[in-house]
Each structure stands twice: as C-alpha cells, then as structure tokens.
Write a structure and sequence with these properties.
Number of helices: 9
Number of strands: 4
Structural class: mainly alpha
Helix content: 40-55%
Strand content: 5-15%
C-alpha cells in the first residue's frame, strides 16, 4: 500500500491518470491504514499479524512512516496511533542498543561488525517526520556517529534536517555512499543491500 499513496501523482505525471483505473488505489490505501492501525498494541508497537503475536521495532517504524506519509497525502489516519508509535520508537531508541551485523567480503566470507541498531536511525527519522524534536536523543547519537551503520548516518542527518537543523544535516551527511555487501536478513531490521540503498536514496 505504501507506493500506492503516490500512485495518482505518478500516473498524472506520465499522462496515465485517466487510464488503467478499473481499481481504486485510494480505497486500497485507506483499507491498509485501517488494518495497520488495528495492529497497534498498548505499548505503541505493531504486531506482524492482525490477531496478535510478536511485535517488531523496525516494522513499527515502517508502519508509522507509512501512516505519516498517508496522513500528509490527505488520507484518514488516527493521530493517536501515530502519537503512540512515536512514543514507542523514542523509548526504544533510548535503550542505546548495539547489534552484530554480518557482511560479505570480496572473497565471499562473512565477517561481523557491531553497530548501533539500524532501528535507531530509522526511528529518529520517522519521529522527526512526525514532528517530534527530541534534540537530546539526536545529540547523543551524534556523539556516537562512528558507531552508526552507513545507512544510520544518513537517517540521523535527515532527522536533524527535519528538526530544522540544516547546518548539522550538512555536517553529518556523508559525501559518498558505497553499498556494503551486507547479509540479507528476513528478521530484525530486514537488512539487505537493496533496502539500504533505497534508504540512502530516500
């Protein structure tokens, strides 16, 4: 549903807005919003499945990102759901957790590196996108900049920009990005080279 938020704008820009519209993308987005909102737990985190189960930090940040963009595009979104998610994301980011990530060298062998969890950078970015200006938390991770993944550095810089501090954004934004050959994961933060390139591009 996330890309469908922008479907009409994209279709219009390429002269296709009156074609291929037998289905209603806005209906699909709105139904997805309702479904996502119903998956929020008391903590503000989101579960994987409608009937409950395990919550996921990264998925909560992604779902919140979707709801914010949908709200900004004019869709009906419950602001309390976003508020609760932001509270959860900021609470998790305060735990200052490290994570082992696995990369593949030029000989095809795995090696391990410990970084601030990728969820932190994404959470700070999403919270800033929602209008939260938790400067003390941003400043803490600025002091830990060398322990962020390459993608985390971009997300922290963007969080500063969204918080109105363009000078720090320019200071922190890496001048170049080389996609690390990270092991693709189907859990945690769903790490992959393509996902990470998309984050940096975004």
């Amino acid at each position: 549903a996330f890309p469908l938020i922008f479907y009409r704008d994209i279709a219009k820009s390429i002269g296709q807005d009156n074609k291929n519209m037998d289905w209603n993308p806005d209906y699909i987005v709105q139904e997805a919003i309702y479904k996502v909102q119903n998956m929020q737990q008391y903590s503000g985190a989101m579960v994987y499945w409608p009937n409950g189960g395990q919550t996921n930090w990264w998925a909560t940040a992604y779902a919140t990102h979707f709801l914010i963009e949908a709200k900004n595009a004019g869709f009906e979104v419950n602001p309390q759901v976003i508020k609760n998610s932001v509270s959860y994301l900021e609470s998790e980011a305060k735990n200052k957790k490290l994570q082992d990530y696995y990369y593949i060298d030029q000989n095809g062998k795995y090696y391990q590196m410990s970084y601030v969890r990728q969820e932190v950078g994404y959470s700070l970015f999403v919270c800033a996108l929602a209008g939260s200006k938790n400067i003390s938390l941003l400043n803490y991770y600025k002091t830990q900049f060398q322990f962020l993944t390459e993608e985390g550095k971009y997300m922290l810089a963007a969080a500063y920009a969204l918080s109105g501090n363009k000078a720090t954004f320019r200071e922190l934004l890496p001048s170049k990005y080389s996609t690390p050959n990270v092991r693709r994961e189907s859990w945690g933060s769903f790490n992959s080279p393509i996902r990470n390139s998309a984050i940096v591009l975004y």
